[in-house]
Specification:
The complex is a heterodimer. Chain A is mainly alpha-helical. Chain A has six helices and no strands. In chain A, helix 4 packs across helix 5. In chain A, about 35% of the residues are buried. Classes of the chains: A mainly alpha, B mainly beta.
Chain lengths: ~120, ~650
């Protein structure tokens, strides 16, 4: 079962400390970085530094397959009715990979703060 | 006499012989014959979802690129697909594409010449009243066209005809709002009734359905006159003959069903024995049918030679089978009805006395194929209960009933004489009793397949079917243990379920939750099967280029070879795909369109105990933690349009 596979995979990574090679397609890489920049106030150099740094951290911590699994899970479990119920029922089974993803996001945010930018201060006036 | 005029002369003679079928219908059928357009939800009146276009073919499909996109501006689930119509139909001066959104069901007319919006229709619907009673996401399955009008069936049960040229309302009808109290009406979101289906124009009528079986609505199929929106006929799924439009000639598997066949199948006697493995009689009758469900929200074809339309009805209400002994006719039933009068010619109940929520609403596909060596006017249907049925669509004879997922275990087979599935005791949730958990039942409640329509290619004679590979536990909840008594407008479900990959039951080491299969409806056999990690909830499309398209929940649009199933192309769209692939040609270029967009609306999750409420509440609690990820899927609800470079 996938569920088992997920657990096994995450255990392997933790025990051996092996980090996966970045297997993220370009389209997903760019999508992550662009969305991250927009979420943090817009597409500019400062956000580019933080967002690419975060992406690198996440893509080192979880494989693309795991990233995709978490994305599908999150999108679908909020659907009402039976369709969403399938995913909500998978909740426990996917907990391992989600926890790993969440930890990766937290680490990425901690280690990749949004760079500050010097702007003309309001005190000038 | 030249060949041309001879042909015209013959057509003129034929026209005198063939009874008039109405000009509106001929117009739509002519549009359907032109592969440049997509004029009916199912592509054509057979529901083939097949196009003669072959610019994109199995040699070059690998080169497909994104041609253009359109964001509907709405989140949540986007089902269905666009219509594409010529200037001659709309009066708009150029080819236009018509696309809808999830709630509140906006409609856009897009000029294909310059990709601008010609008009937009933005209905005002009462969100607080409508959204909470939609059991299964606030989807809409698209639009219909005939007589210069675009039809929209809004969630709040309002059926609207829009002038295709201006987008202005021509007429509207409140579907179910006119049902008298003596028949259990009037129905509206106030009584738990809503709509998700696409309106299906047939001849001079517009056919529409009903959702609300989880709220105890006694559902129906209705035909409105396209000219003015007046009601032509309405046929309930259950009740006395005058309500369900059965007459003395209505048959099931070749036998006349007799008077009040529905009423006689809702028993009062608790000694009625489940499961239903053959015909049975009630000792006494109950009136549970008055809140009997049997919703209708699928994709409906028509056979104009026979003047018949075909559709399926959904689950009997409630989900606790113990409180409704009997076959519960005509829930879970394939209907063949006269398009003009609504009278049923034949019916076939696939899952008598449902104990698992195996709705029979899935699409019906009409094809003249060889069945066991004999050329047959067939109807093919992939039911939620896991059986692929092939029937004679003229007589209603059952020809093939075979499992289209090897995981299906709730019954061993279908008795071909009686039509009854031979249910296994340990998976009979009624036999096991109220407040008892029946384990490892396959398929799960959402079926081996849900509404997402399959495609048929006359070139390969194969059906291309998106499927689920999921099993469940099912616990009917008694009134004593807290089940809800019927209250109009309140959820009326009374069952607890959990769902998981079928591999856990089959113990075959697999973990995939879906398959995309090619099905031979003559033999009732899977030709090939492509495992998908997640359930496949997109509609399929087949083309004369021998390419088949489908989409996945990860968001991949995929093109595969129609013969071998080999993957030719895949592309990651912004969100998950639960829409249907449609194709058209504009200025010599073939396009393929698909809606990408899945969302969730947390409010409804708590509104329906037993259905949406998750046993794993921890998972629900985690929603907040993922909000950022959810928000960054800001492009939900995008029509993706592909072509060759």
């Amino acid at each position: 079962m996938r569920i088992i596979r997920l657990f096994v995979l995450s255990a392997l990574v933790i025990v051996s400390g092996i980090v996966s090679a970045n297997d993220y397609p370009t389209i997903e890489t760019v999508r992550y970085v662009v969305n991250c920049m927009v979420d943090n106030g817009g597409q500019n150099e400062e956000n580019l530094y933080a967002c690419t740094c975060r992406f690198d951290a996440i893509s080192k911590a979880v494989t693309f397959q795991q990233y995709e699994d978490v994305s599908v899970f999150v999108r679908n479990k909020a659907m009402p009715g039976e369709k969403g119920a399938v995913f909500r029922d998978l909740g426990n089974a996917t907990k391992g990979v989600r926890a790993k993803y969440e930890a990766a996001v937290k680490t990425a945010e901690d280690n990749c703060p949004i760079a500050k930018r010097v702007t003309r201060s309001v005190k000038d006036k | 006499m030249s060949k041309l005029s001879l042909k015209y002369w013959m057509i003129a003679v034929l026209a005198l012989v063939v009874p008039l079928t109405g000009s509106a219908n001929d117009e739509v059928r002519k549009l359907i014959d032109n592969p440049n357009y997509w004029a009916f939800p199912g592509g054509d009146y057979n529901n083939w979802r097949y196009s003669e276009l072959k610019q994109i073919n199995n040699k070059n499909a690998g080169n497909i690129v994104t041609a253009w996109t359109f964001s509907t501006g709405r989140l949540q689930g986007h089902e269905g697909g666009p219509l594409v119509l010529p200037s001659s139909a709309t009066g708009l001066g150029s080819d236009h594409l018509f696309i809808h959104s999830s709630f509140p069901n906006d409609v856009f007319a897009i000029n294909l010449d310059d990709l601008t919006i010609t008009w937009a229709y933005e209905p005002q619907q009462n969100e607080a009243e409508t959204v909470p009673i939609m059991c299964c996401d606030i989807v809409n399955r698209g639009l219909g066209y005939s007589m210069g009008q675009i039809y929209l069936q809004q969630a709040d049960s309002k059926l609207v005809a829009l002038n295709a040229k201006t987008g202005k309302e021509v007429w509207h009808a409140w579907n179910g709002g006119d049902i008298p109290a003596s028949l259990g009406g009037p129905h509206s979101p106030k009584t738990g009734m809503s709509n998700t289906n696409a309106p299906h124009p047939m001849k001079d009528k517009v056919i529409t359905g009903c959702s609300g079986a989880e709220f105890g609505v006694r559902c129906w199929l209705a035909a409105y006159n396209a000219k003015d929106g007046s009601l032509a006929w309405r046929a309930f799924s259950m009740g006395p003959d005058e309500d369900i439009l059965f007459d003395k000639n209505t048959t099931s598997l070749g036998k006349k069903v007799g008077k009040d066949s529905s009423l006689k199948s809702w028993c009062s006697n608790s000694d009625w024995k489940a499961p239903a493995r053959g015909p049975s009689k009630c000792k006494g009758l109950s009136d549970q049918w008055k809140t009997g469900g049997g919703s209708t929200w699928g994709w409906w074809p028509a056979d104009f030679e026979e003047n018949l339309l075909y559709y399926g009805s959904g689950n009997p209400s409630t989900w606790n089978p113990v409180v409704r002994p009997g076959d519960n006719k005509w829930s879970m039933t394939i209907f063949a009805r006269d398009i003009d009068t609504g009278v049923a010619r034949w019916v076939y109940q696939m899952t008598p006395h449902d104990e698992w929520d195996y709705d029979g609403i899935n699409e019906m596909i009409l094809a003249d194929i060889k069945v066991k060596g004999k050329k047959t006017p067939a109807l093919v249907h992939f039911d939620r209960n896991g059986y692929g049925y092939t029937m004679n669509r003229k007589t209603g004879a059952l020809l093939v009933a075979e499992k289209y997922d090897p995981a299906v275990n709730w019954s061993t087979h279908v008795d071909m004489k009686t039509g009854y599935p031979q249910t296994v005791d340990k998976y009979s949730t009624h036999h096991n009793g109220e407040d008892v958990v029946s384990k490892d039942v396959c398929p799960a409640a959402l079926g081996t397949k849900d509404q997402q329509p399959a495609a048929f290619s006359p070139r390969t004679n194969l059906f291309y079917v998106p499927t689920n590979h999921v099993c469940m536990t099912y616990e009917p909840v008694s009134y004593a243990a807290g089940g809800n008594q019927y209250v109009a407008g309140q959820p009326y479900v009374n069952a607890n379920l959990t769902m998981y990959p079928a591999g856990a039951v089959m113990k075959d080491g697999t973990d995939n939750m879906g398959n995309f299969i090619a099905w031979d409806a003559s033999a009732g056999k899977i030709k090939w099967s492509i495992p998908e990690q997640w359930s496949v909830w997109s509609g399929a499309l087949a083309t004369a280029g021998d390419v088949v398209f489908y989409g996945t929940l990860e968001g991949y649009a995929k093109a595969i070879d129609a013969k071998s199933g080999k993957l030719l192309w895949k592309f990651k769209t912004p969100s998950g795909i639960i829409g249907n692939f449609n194709t058209w040609q504009h200025k010599g270029k073939q396009y393929v369109g698909i809606l990408s967009g899945i969302g969730g609306w947390a409010g409804a999750v708590v509104a329906i105990p037993g259905l949406a409420a998750a046993p794993d509440t921890a998972a629900l609690g985690a929603v907040g933690g993922y909000r950022d990820l959810l928000n960054s899927a800001r492009n939900s609800g995008v029509l993706m349009v592909f072509s060759l470079p």
